[in-house]
Structure formats: C-alpha cells, structure tokens
Design goal:
By secondary structure, the protein is α+β, with helices and mostly antiparallel strands. It has 2 domains: 248 residues, Bira Bifunctional Protein, Domain 2 (BirA Bifunctional Protein, domain 2, 2-Layer Sandwich), CATH 3.30.930; 91 residues, Anticodon-binding domain (Rossmann fold, 3-Layer(aba) Sandwich), CATH 3.40.50.800. It is built from 15 helices and 16 strands. It has an 8-stranded mixed beta sheet. A 5-stranded mixed beta sheet has the order 13-12-14-15-16, sandwiched between helices.
Length: 421
C-alpha cells in the first residue's frame, strides 16, 4: 500500500463514478444551450484582492477558507473559492460588457475552500456556475432559477422547491441592519460566540447561524420583508408572481441570506426532499452592485452555483441511475504471431468505423481471452488463427445467441455493425 494519500477534503473520481459525471455534464450542456447560455472558463486562480473586494473582507470565505499564496513575482494569488468574481473580471477584461444584454454565461470547474469536509462538500469540489449580466427584470431571475430547476428535474429528482428571500438593496438594507443589530443587542446572552463576532461586522449572517442555541433568537428576529423599499418589494412581488404562473413551488425563507456580501434583492436555493439534512442543491442570487464595485459600469447580475459532487451524492441517495457510458462491444481473439499482427489491424479498422473494440495482450489461452470478453460484456468476438489469416477469413461469434459464422475480411465490418446494433 502506498504511503501517499489524497489530501483531506479531496477525493479521487474512479471509473465506476464516471457515468454520473458524464450524464450530469451532458444535461448541463443540453439545458444551457436550450436557455441560450455560452461556456467560458476563467482560470482557477486570481489576484487575492479580487476576492476580498467582491466576496467581502468579513466573510468566512475570506477570513477562514481561502487558499492564498504569494507567487515568485511577489503577487498574492488565491485559488478561486467561488466563480462570480472571476466571471466579472473576465466579462470586463474581454470587452463582453460591450455585447448586447443580457450576457448569459456558464462554466464548470473546481473551486477551493478550506472548510470542514462533510457529505457532498470537499475542500476541492467541482461547481456548475451560471451568470447573467445586464438585466434587472425579475423575469431574468426566474430564467436563471429555472436552469437549476430543469437540471435537477431532468436528472430525476422529485419534490423540488425554491427557498426565496430578498436581502434588499443599498437603499433599504442599512436601516434593516440597524434594526437587526438593535434586536440582537437585547439578546447577547443567548447567542453563540460566532454571532457576537458577526454582530458588528456582518449582521445579515446572524440569520444564517446553524447553532441550535441561536435558533429561537433567529425565529423572533425582525424580517427584512417588512423593511424593503418599494423597488425591492415590487421586484420580489413580480418574481413570486412569475413562479406562481409557472407552477414552481416556493417558500419564503426569512433566514436565507447566503454567505457573501455582494448579494442584493433576490437570494434563492433549490431544495430536494428526501436527501437528508443538507437538502439544498444549489444557491445563488442577484448582485446588482458588484460589477460597478469591481470597476465596471453599473450593471445588474444574477447567478447560482451547484456542486457536482453534491448532485451525485443525492442521486445515489435517491437511487437515480445515470445513463451508462459506451463500452467496447467487440473483442478480437487471436492465436499465433501472424494472427496477432492481423488482430491489431482489425481492431484499428473497427475503431476507424467508430466501433469500440479491444484485443487481448500477451499470450493468453482461448479460455482466458473468452473470460476477457465476458468481463467486458462484449456482444461478439472475432477469432483469428494463423490459418484464418492465410485464408483471408475471420470467425465471428455472437455471444448473445451463441452462433458462429465465418466471413471474409471485406464483409467483417458490416457483419459486426449488424451484430452490435
């Protein structure tokens, strides 16, 4: 056994799990194409100051979870802890802000957070991310939210439900935060040490605390829906109206604030019933001031992220099976030196015809080569000996029917195609 082990919070994706990954990726490409989103791939590390500026200096991500290092050019770099900041940097740097709005983008790739590993969440995990820039219409919110909904529905999940809230905007949020802080100052003896630390630094995160002792305090806290300005209230009213028209179940969750400073107005999650306590499949929301904060023109935006590992874990919990990956259907069996050389020719001929084919290696017996065929669930085997090579013929055995025929090399490809069809 090797003395080297994978790093805590990382994992190896082995062949038996690959069908889940390919199936999910296929659905992502189908659905993003249906909604008119284009793929981009920002690098996995950016300047640290980009994340501090966007995510928020007092967030847990910046304070505790980022993988940050100084490169040989004495620049502080960070492995991306989330996608949105890199999307905006890419959007501005590459002139995409000049494109007709909305600009609709998606990506898939690893993100890195130094946090306690738990079910479906790792220190390196893969995220599907969707972002739409340039449109403040609440119908845009519904479109982005619907991409997530349709992905989970097509993967086979049932009992989908949106969790919704509005976090207000720079006009109405400050007054609410002062009201929230005043309330919490009357309950200081009842809250955890993390909440005491957050109280004057990032008060909205008080509502996101998971400590059991803080739950009664959260339940009695003032709710932001009663403090929204008319613009935020109208936006949220139209959003819920569109969801009602589409028949999408939702719950207004006053505790839902998400963990990043840049959110404004809509925040949402998609929950799935029956997948344990961690029932949120994705999370996202609107960040209308962030592009301006990072140096661009005032531009609204909305997006979400969904961890692929979390989706796979939930599929397994619910017994949802992915489409199987294509497997080689043909094995070429040979006896003798001449037959081996010819077998290699046949394997590559079949592959050139897009027929998955393998050959045995070494000097295995007929029985051992047939075991190889059974292990790979081959539909048929081609059998070659030196005498068949001299005669220019090939024996084809149908492993499902047990029948065996002899054909010429010219007939071989069509015969095999008919057998594996």
């Amino acid at each position: 056994m090797t003395k080297y082990q994978s790093i805590t919070g990382t994992r190896d994706v082995l062949p038996e799990e690959q069908p889940y990954w390919r199936f999910i990726e296929k659905k992502i490409y189908e659905i993003t194409s249906l909604f008119g989103y284009q793929r981009v791939d920002p690098p996995i590390f950016e300047e640290t100051r980009l994340f501090i500026r966007s995510v928020g200096e007092t967030t847990d991500i910046v304070e505790k979870e980022m993988y940050t290092f100084v490169d040989k050019g004495d620049t502080s770099l960070t492995l991306r802890p989330e996608f949105t900041a890199g999307f905006i940097r890419l959007y501005l740097q590459n002139g995409m802000h000049m494109l007709p709005k909305p600009v609709k983008l998606f990506s898939m790739g690893p993100i890195f957070r130094f946090e306690r590993p738990q079910a479906g969440r790792f220190r390196q995990h893969t995220q599907f991310n969707v972002e739409a820039f340039g449109e403040q219409d609440s119908a845009m919110d519904v479109e982005v939210m619907s991409i997530a909904w349709q992905l989970y529905a097509e993967l086979g999940f049932r009992g989908l439900r949106f969790q919704l809230n509005s976090t207000g905007c720079p006009q109405c949020r400050p007054a609410y935060i002062e009201t929230l802080k005043a309330y919490y100052h009357t309950r200081l003896q009842e809250i955890c040490s993390d909440c005491k630390r957050r109280l004057d630094r990032n008060a909205l995160r008080l509502l996101d605390c998971k400590s059991p002792g803080c739950q009664p305090v959260i339940a009695a806290a003032p709710v932001i829906s009663q403090h929204l300005c008319s613009s935020c209230d109208d936006h949220f009213h139209h959003l819920t109206g569109y969801l009602d028209r589409l028949g999408r179940p939702y719950e207004i969750n006053h505790k839902l604030v998400r963990g990043l400073d840049y959110y404004s107005k809509t925040v949402f999650e998609v929950w799935v019933q029956g997948i344990g306590s961690q029932n949120a499949m994705c999370g996202g929301g609107r960040y209308d001031g962030l592009i301006e904060q990072l140096g661009g023109e005032p531009t609204p935006g909305i997006g979400f992220g969904s961890g692929i590992e979390r989706i796979i874990l939930s599929m397994k919990e619910q017994g949802l099976q992915p489409e199987p990956l294509p497997e080689p259907r043909v094995l070429v069996i040979y006896f003798g030196a001449k037959a081996k050389a010819r077998a290699m020719d046949l394997v590559f001929t079949l592959r050139n015809e897009k027929i998955p084919a393998l050959m045995s290696f070494g000097e295995k017996s007929f029985k051992a080569q047939m075991r190889d065929a059974n292990r790979m669930h081959a539909a048929c085997v081609l059998i070659l000996g030196d005498s068949e090579v001299e005669q220019g013929v090939i024996s084809i055995k149908d492993l499902r029917q047990g029948e065996q025929i002899q054909v010429t090399e010219a007939e071989m490809v069509n015969r095999v195609k008919n057998l594996i069809r």
